[in-house]
Write a structure and sequence with these properties.
By secondary structure, the protein is of the alpha+beta class. 24% of the residues lie in helices and 37% in strands. Helix 2 runs parallel beside helix 4 and helix 3 crosses helix 4.
Length: 361
Protein backbone atom coordinates (compact mmCIF):
# COMPACT_ATOMS: atom_id res chain seq x y z
CA UNK A 1 0.00 0.00 0.00
CA UNK A 2 1.20 3.47 -0.88
CA UNK A 3 0.96 5.31 2.44
CA UNK A 4 1.45 8.70 0.78
CA UNK A 5 -1.44 8.24 -1.64
CA UNK A 6 -4.88 9.75 -1.00
CA UNK A 7 -7.57 7.43 0.31
CA UNK A 8 -9.54 8.03 -2.90
CA UNK A 9 -8.47 9.80 -6.07
CA UNK A 10 -10.74 10.53 -9.01
CA UNK A 11 -9.04 11.35 -12.30
CA UNK A 12 -11.13 12.86 -15.09
CA UNK A 13 -14.19 10.79 -14.28
CA UNK A 14 -17.02 10.99 -16.80
CA UNK A 15 -20.22 8.95 -16.80
CA UNK A 16 -22.57 8.96 -19.79
CA UNK A 17 -25.95 7.24 -19.76
CA UNK A 18 -28.41 6.72 -22.59
CA UNK A 19 -31.99 7.90 -22.15
CA UNK A 20 -34.97 5.87 -23.52
CA UNK A 21 -34.54 7.62 -26.89
CA UNK A 22 -30.88 6.49 -26.87
CA UNK A 23 -29.63 10.04 -26.50
CA UNK A 24 -26.49 10.55 -24.44
CA UNK A 25 -26.93 12.08 -20.97
CA UNK A 26 -23.77 13.24 -19.18
CA UNK A 27 -24.33 12.50 -15.47
CA UNK A 28 -20.74 13.21 -14.36
CA UNK A 29 -18.50 15.45 -16.44
CA UNK A 30 -14.69 15.18 -16.18
CA UNK A 31 -14.42 15.27 -12.37
CA UNK A 32 -11.04 15.16 -10.64
CA UNK A 33 -10.62 15.36 -6.87
CA UNK A 34 -9.07 13.53 -3.92
CA UNK A 35 -10.23 12.31 -0.52
CA UNK A 36 -7.26 12.38 1.92
CA UNK A 37 -6.76 9.35 4.14
CA UNK A 38 -8.84 9.45 7.29
CA UNK A 39 -11.07 12.33 6.15
CA UNK A 40 -14.81 12.38 5.69
CA UNK A 41 -15.62 14.18 2.46
CA UNK A 42 -19.23 14.94 1.53
CA UNK A 43 -20.60 15.11 -2.00
CA UNK A 44 -23.30 17.77 -1.77
CA UNK A 45 -25.71 19.07 -4.34
CA UNK A 46 -29.30 19.11 -5.58
CA UNK A 47 -31.08 16.12 -7.07
CA UNK A 48 -29.63 15.14 -10.43
CA UNK A 49 -26.21 16.74 -9.86
CA UNK A 50 -24.34 13.40 -10.12
CA UNK A 51 -23.37 12.84 -6.48
CA UNK A 52 -24.94 9.38 -6.09
CA UNK A 53 -23.62 8.27 -9.48
CA UNK A 54 -20.13 9.36 -8.42
CA UNK A 55 -20.41 7.45 -5.14
CA UNK A 56 -21.63 4.31 -6.92
CA UNK A 57 -18.67 4.50 -9.30
CA UNK A 58 -16.25 4.64 -6.35
CA UNK A 59 -17.94 1.53 -4.95
CA UNK A 60 -18.00 -0.29 -8.30
CA UNK A 61 -21.80 -0.37 -8.60
CA UNK A 62 -21.51 1.77 -11.74
CA UNK A 63 -18.59 1.95 -14.13
CA UNK A 64 -17.17 5.20 -15.44
CA UNK A 65 -17.30 5.92 -19.17
CA UNK A 66 -13.90 7.62 -19.02
CA UNK A 67 -11.27 8.26 -16.37
CA UNK A 68 -9.90 6.22 -13.48
CA UNK A 69 -10.52 5.77 -9.76
CA UNK A 70 -7.69 5.03 -7.34
CA UNK A 71 -8.06 3.65 -3.80
CA UNK A 72 -4.94 3.85 -1.65
CA UNK A 73 -2.93 4.58 -4.79
CA UNK A 74 -4.16 1.54 -6.74
CA UNK A 75 -6.36 1.78 -9.82
CA UNK A 76 -9.72 0.06 -9.42
CA UNK A 77 -10.20 -0.20 -13.17
CA UNK A 78 -13.69 -1.61 -13.77
CA UNK A 79 -13.55 -4.03 -10.81
CA UNK A 80 -16.92 -5.04 -9.27
CA UNK A 81 -17.83 -4.04 -5.68
CA UNK A 82 -16.59 -7.29 -4.12
CA UNK A 83 -13.13 -6.71 -5.62
CA UNK A 84 -12.72 -3.25 -4.08
CA UNK A 85 -11.77 -2.59 -0.49
CA UNK A 86 -14.87 -0.48 0.12
CA UNK A 87 -18.11 -0.87 2.07
CA UNK A 88 -21.39 0.92 1.43
CA UNK A 89 -23.95 2.09 3.99
CA UNK A 90 -27.22 2.34 2.08
CA UNK A 91 -30.18 4.67 2.53
CA UNK A 92 -32.50 1.68 3.00
CA UNK A 93 -30.22 -0.10 5.56
CA UNK A 94 -30.44 -3.30 3.40
CA UNK A 95 -30.48 -5.59 6.45
CA UNK A 96 -31.52 -9.23 6.18
CA UNK A 97 -34.85 -9.36 8.06
CA UNK A 98 -34.66 -13.13 8.74
CA UNK A 99 -31.23 -12.84 10.40
CA UNK A 100 -30.36 -11.66 13.90
CA UNK A 101 -28.35 -8.50 14.40
CA UNK A 102 -25.28 -10.67 15.08
CA UNK A 103 -25.69 -12.61 11.84
CA UNK A 104 -26.27 -9.43 9.84
CA UNK A 105 -23.01 -7.94 11.12
CA UNK A 106 -21.11 -11.22 10.70
CA UNK A 107 -22.37 -11.87 7.16
CA UNK A 108 -19.41 -10.42 5.27
CA UNK A 109 -16.87 -12.12 7.54
CA UNK A 110 -18.50 -15.49 6.94
CA UNK A 111 -18.29 -14.93 3.19
CA UNK A 112 -14.55 -14.50 3.72
CA UNK A 113 -14.53 -17.86 5.58
CA UNK A 114 -13.04 -16.29 8.70
CA UNK A 115 -12.79 -18.62 11.74
CA UNK A 116 -15.83 -18.49 14.03
CA UNK A 117 -13.80 -17.33 17.04
CA UNK A 118 -12.38 -14.38 15.07
CA UNK A 119 -15.85 -13.49 13.82
CA UNK A 120 -17.23 -13.43 17.37
CA UNK A 121 -14.39 -11.18 18.51
CA UNK A 122 -14.75 -8.73 15.63
CA UNK A 123 -18.54 -8.56 15.83
CA UNK A 124 -18.42 -8.01 19.60
CA UNK A 125 -15.88 -5.20 19.21
CA UNK A 126 -17.89 -3.52 16.45
CA UNK A 127 -21.18 -3.79 18.35
CA UNK A 128 -19.48 -1.98 21.21
CA UNK A 129 -18.14 0.74 18.88
CA UNK A 130 -21.64 1.53 17.53
CA UNK A 131 -23.32 1.23 20.93
CA UNK A 132 -25.39 -1.91 20.31
CA UNK A 133 -23.83 -4.37 22.76
CA UNK A 134 -26.48 -6.72 24.15
CA UNK A 135 -28.71 -6.54 21.07
CA UNK A 136 -26.97 -9.30 19.11
CA UNK A 137 -29.91 -11.74 19.24
CA UNK A 138 -32.61 -9.30 18.20
CA UNK A 139 -34.18 -9.25 14.74
CA UNK A 140 -33.92 -6.04 12.69
CA UNK A 141 -37.69 -5.61 12.97
CA UNK A 142 -37.34 -5.31 16.74
CA UNK A 143 -35.06 -2.28 16.43
CA UNK A 144 -35.76 1.42 15.91
CA UNK A 145 -34.72 3.12 12.69
CA UNK A 146 -31.64 4.57 14.37
CA UNK A 147 -30.62 1.19 15.77
CA UNK A 148 -31.06 -0.43 12.34
CA UNK A 149 -28.80 2.22 10.86
CA UNK A 150 -26.19 1.40 13.52
CA UNK A 151 -26.38 -2.26 12.52
CA UNK A 152 -25.83 -1.29 8.87
CA UNK A 153 -22.85 0.83 9.95
CA UNK A 154 -21.40 -2.03 12.02
CA UNK A 155 -21.83 -4.48 9.13
CA UNK A 156 -19.94 -2.12 6.81
CA UNK A 157 -17.15 -1.41 9.31
CA UNK A 158 -16.52 -4.94 10.54
CA UNK A 159 -14.95 -5.86 7.18
CA UNK A 160 -12.27 -3.21 7.80
CA UNK A 161 -12.60 -1.47 4.41
CA UNK A 162 -10.13 1.12 3.22
CA UNK A 163 -13.02 3.39 2.26
CA UNK A 164 -16.51 3.69 3.73
CA UNK A 165 -19.26 4.99 1.44
CA UNK A 166 -22.53 6.55 2.66
CA UNK A 167 -25.50 6.92 0.30
CA UNK A 168 -27.82 9.41 2.07
CA UNK A 169 -27.93 7.12 5.12
CA UNK A 170 -30.10 9.36 7.31
CA UNK A 171 -32.86 10.40 4.91
CA UNK A 172 -35.33 7.81 6.29
CA UNK A 173 -35.03 9.05 9.88
CA UNK A 174 -37.02 11.78 11.60
CA UNK A 175 -35.34 15.14 12.23
CA UNK A 176 -34.28 14.55 15.86
CA UNK A 177 -32.93 11.07 15.22
CA UNK A 178 -31.13 12.29 12.11
CA UNK A 179 -29.15 14.75 14.25
CA UNK A 180 -28.26 12.00 16.75
CA UNK A 181 -27.16 9.58 14.04
CA UNK A 182 -25.05 12.09 12.11
CA UNK A 183 -23.16 12.80 15.34
CA UNK A 184 -22.75 9.06 15.92
CA UNK A 185 -21.46 8.44 12.39
CA UNK A 186 -18.94 11.25 12.79
CA UNK A 187 -17.83 9.93 16.18
CA UNK A 188 -17.25 6.41 14.83
CA UNK A 189 -15.52 7.68 11.68
CA UNK A 190 -13.09 9.84 13.66
CA UNK A 191 -12.54 7.10 16.27
CA UNK A 192 -11.55 4.59 13.58
CA UNK A 193 -9.86 7.13 11.27
CA UNK A 194 -11.50 5.56 8.23
CA UNK A 195 -11.56 7.37 4.87
CA UNK A 196 -15.20 8.12 4.07
CA UNK A 197 -17.25 9.54 1.21
CA UNK A 198 -20.71 10.73 2.21
CA UNK A 199 -23.58 11.74 -0.08
CA UNK A 200 -26.34 14.10 1.04
CA UNK A 201 -28.49 16.95 -0.23
CA UNK A 202 -28.85 18.33 3.31
CA UNK A 203 -26.58 21.35 3.78
CA UNK A 204 -26.74 21.33 7.57
CA UNK A 205 -25.82 17.65 7.66
CA UNK A 206 -22.86 18.29 5.37
CA UNK A 207 -21.59 21.18 7.53
CA UNK A 208 -21.79 19.16 10.75
CA UNK A 209 -20.23 15.93 9.54
CA UNK A 210 -17.56 16.85 6.98
CA UNK A 211 -13.86 17.59 6.92
CA UNK A 212 -14.36 18.90 3.40
CA UNK A 213 -17.31 19.33 1.06
CA UNK A 214 -17.46 18.88 -2.72
CA UNK A 215 -20.35 20.96 -4.08
CA UNK A 216 -21.67 19.52 -7.34
CA UNK A 217 -23.84 21.11 -10.00
CA UNK A 218 -25.00 19.46 -13.22
CA UNK A 219 -22.32 16.75 -13.03
CA UNK A 220 -19.39 19.11 -12.39
CA UNK A 221 -17.57 20.45 -9.33
CA UNK A 222 -18.63 23.95 -8.35
CA UNK A 223 -16.37 24.26 -5.27
CA UNK A 224 -14.28 22.15 -2.87
CA UNK A 225 -13.47 23.37 0.62
CA UNK A 226 -14.00 23.05 4.33
CA UNK A 227 -17.53 23.77 5.58
CA UNK A 228 -16.36 27.15 6.86
CA UNK A 229 -14.68 28.07 3.55
CA UNK A 230 -17.74 27.19 1.50
CA UNK A 231 -20.18 28.94 3.82
CA UNK A 232 -18.15 32.11 4.31
CA UNK A 233 -16.38 32.32 0.93
CA UNK A 234 -18.61 30.70 -1.72
CA UNK A 235 -17.11 30.55 -5.20
CA UNK A 236 -20.39 31.39 -6.96
CA UNK A 237 -23.96 32.52 -6.46
CA UNK A 238 -25.06 28.91 -6.86
CA UNK A 239 -22.91 27.75 -3.92
CA UNK A 240 -23.92 30.71 -1.76
CA UNK A 241 -27.61 30.20 -2.50
CA UNK A 242 -27.53 26.42 -2.07
CA UNK A 243 -25.58 26.60 1.16
CA UNK A 244 -27.99 28.16 3.66
CA UNK A 245 -30.01 31.37 3.67
CA UNK A 246 -28.37 34.31 1.98
CA UNK A 247 -28.93 37.88 0.79
CA UNK A 248 -27.42 39.02 -2.51
CA UNK A 249 -27.02 42.77 -2.10
CA UNK A 250 -26.00 44.85 -5.15
CA UNK A 251 -22.76 46.72 -4.50
CA UNK A 252 -20.17 48.67 -6.48
CA UNK A 253 -16.44 48.74 -5.83
CA UNK A 254 -15.27 52.32 -5.43
CA UNK A 255 -11.60 51.72 -4.51
CA UNK A 256 -9.09 48.86 -4.42
CA UNK A 257 -5.99 48.76 -2.23
CA UNK A 258 -4.50 45.27 -2.37
CA UNK A 259 -6.83 42.94 -0.49
CA UNK A 260 -8.83 45.90 0.85
CA UNK A 261 -11.93 46.85 -1.14
CA UNK A 262 -14.13 49.88 -0.56
CA UNK A 263 -17.69 49.25 -1.71
CA UNK A 264 -20.86 51.29 -1.99
CA UNK A 265 -23.55 49.09 -0.46
CA UNK A 266 -27.11 50.38 0.09
CA UNK A 267 -25.76 53.92 0.03
CA UNK A 268 -23.11 53.25 2.68
CA UNK A 269 -19.35 53.07 2.11
CA UNK A 270 -17.96 49.86 3.60
CA UNK A 271 -14.44 48.44 3.61
CA UNK A 272 -14.10 44.71 2.96
CA UNK A 273 -10.94 42.59 3.17
CA UNK A 274 -11.00 39.79 0.60
CA UNK A 275 -7.69 38.12 -0.39
CA UNK A 276 -7.40 37.00 -4.00
CA UNK A 277 -10.57 38.84 -5.00
CA UNK A 278 -9.72 39.57 -8.67
CA UNK A 279 -12.06 42.58 -8.66
CA UNK A 280 -11.52 46.14 -9.91
CA UNK A 281 -12.67 49.65 -9.05
CA UNK A 282 -15.96 50.51 -10.74
CA UNK A 283 -17.01 46.87 -10.97
CA UNK A 284 -20.54 45.84 -10.06
CA UNK A 285 -20.72 43.02 -7.53
CA UNK A 286 -23.15 40.97 -5.51
CA UNK A 287 -22.35 41.12 -1.82
CA UNK A 288 -23.07 37.79 -0.12
CA UNK A 289 -24.63 38.69 3.24
CA UNK A 290 -25.81 35.93 5.58
CA UNK A 291 -28.85 36.87 7.72
CA UNK A 292 -26.90 36.35 10.96
CA UNK A 293 -24.18 38.77 9.77
CA UNK A 294 -26.56 41.74 9.94
CA UNK A 295 -28.66 43.26 12.69
CA UNK A 296 -31.37 45.86 13.10
CA UNK A 297 -31.36 48.55 15.76
CA UNK A 298 -33.80 51.36 16.53
CA UNK A 299 -31.24 53.85 15.24
CA UNK A 300 -27.85 54.22 13.51
CA UNK A 301 -26.57 52.18 10.58
CA UNK A 302 -28.20 52.16 7.13
CA UNK A 303 -31.68 53.67 7.16
CA UNK A 304 -34.30 50.98 6.52
CA UNK A 305 -37.95 50.10 7.02
CA UNK A 306 -38.98 46.92 8.78
CA UNK A 307 -41.29 45.17 6.29
CA UNK A 308 -41.88 41.88 8.15
CA UNK A 309 -41.04 40.19 11.45
CA UNK A 310 -41.33 36.41 11.93
CA UNK A 311 -40.91 35.11 15.48
CA UNK A 312 -39.28 31.64 15.43
CA UNK A 313 -38.56 31.07 19.12
CA UNK A 314 -34.78 31.07 19.24
CA UNK A 315 -34.56 33.80 16.63
CA UNK A 316 -36.69 36.50 15.04
CA UNK A 317 -36.33 36.87 11.29
CA UNK A 318 -36.77 40.38 9.96
CA UNK A 319 -37.20 41.52 6.39
CA UNK A 320 -36.07 45.11 5.98
CA UNK A 321 -36.24 47.40 2.96
CA UNK A 322 -33.18 49.57 2.36
CA UNK A 323 -32.37 51.43 -0.86
CA UNK A 324 -35.02 49.45 -2.76
CA UNK A 325 -33.49 46.11 -1.69
CA UNK A 326 -35.04 43.52 0.65
CA UNK A 327 -32.63 42.14 3.24
CA UNK A 328 -33.33 39.25 5.61
CA UNK A 329 -31.83 39.60 9.09
CA UNK A 330 -31.73 36.94 11.82
CA UNK A 331 -31.68 38.35 15.36
CA UNK A 332 -31.06 35.89 18.23
CA UNK A 333 -32.55 36.03 21.73
CA UNK A 334 -35.86 37.74 20.89
CA UNK A 335 -37.03 37.29 24.50
CA UNK A 336 -34.18 39.53 25.67
CA UNK A 337 -34.16 42.04 22.83
CA UNK A 338 -37.88 42.08 22.09
CA UNK A 339 -39.51 42.04 18.66
CA UNK A 340 -39.61 45.23 16.61
CA UNK A 341 -42.89 46.14 15.00
CA UNK A 342 -43.64 46.00 11.28
CA UNK A 343 -43.42 49.38 9.60
CA UNK A 344 -40.86 50.78 12.06
CA UNK A 345 -37.93 52.85 10.83
CA UNK A 346 -34.76 51.03 11.84
CA UNK A 347 -31.01 51.04 11.31
CA UNK A 348 -29.52 48.13 9.39
CA UNK A 349 -26.05 47.23 10.66
CA UNK A 350 -23.79 45.07 8.46
CA UNK A 351 -20.69 43.25 9.70
CA UNK A 352 -17.97 44.04 7.06
CA UNK A 353 -15.87 41.00 8.01
CA UNK A 354 -18.80 38.74 7.09
CA UNK A 355 -19.30 40.18 3.59
CA UNK A 356 -18.07 38.25 0.56
CA UNK A 357 -18.09 39.86 -2.88
CA UNK A 358 -18.85 38.05 -6.13
CA UNK A 359 -18.85 39.51 -9.65
CA UNK A 360 -22.40 40.57 -10.53
CA UNK A 361 -24.27 38.13 -12.77
Amino acid sequence: MNQSAPGVELRNITKIFQDPQRREVVAVNDISCTVPKGELVTLLGPSGCGKTTLLRMIGGFEHQTRGDIFIDGHSTGLAPPNKRNTSMVFQSYALFPHMTVYNNVAYGLRLKKMPAADIRKKVSEMMDVVGLSGMENRAPGQLSGGQQQRVALARALVNEPSVLLFDEPLSNLDAKLRVQMRDEIRRVQKHLGITSVYVTHDQEEAVCISDRIVVLRAGAIEQIGTPQEIYERPASRFVADFFGKVNFVPAEITAVNGDMLTVDLLGASIRVTQPGHGLAAGQKTDAVLRPEAASVQPQGGIQATLAKAVYMGHVVEYTVEAGGVSVTVAEPNPKVRGVLQQGARVGLHVEPAALHLLPAE
